[in-house]
Amino acid sequence: MKEWIKVFETPQQIRAEIVKGVLEENEIPAVVLNKKETVYQVFGLYEVHVNRANALRATTLINNEISF
Q: Is 3.40.50.300 the CATH number for 4-65?
């Protein structure tokens, strides 16, 4: 994971999956990491990570193409 960088975080899994889908539609490989604590699922976030080389392009897409 050293070459991967976080470009988005949210408490809602569906939003993280939407962002991942948009990135992959634009040929940017992405992964969703579940950083929620395991027992009660109250604390923590879902994070979307991309390769460091794609971070700027991914951030631009997220900011300009996705609205919740």
A: no
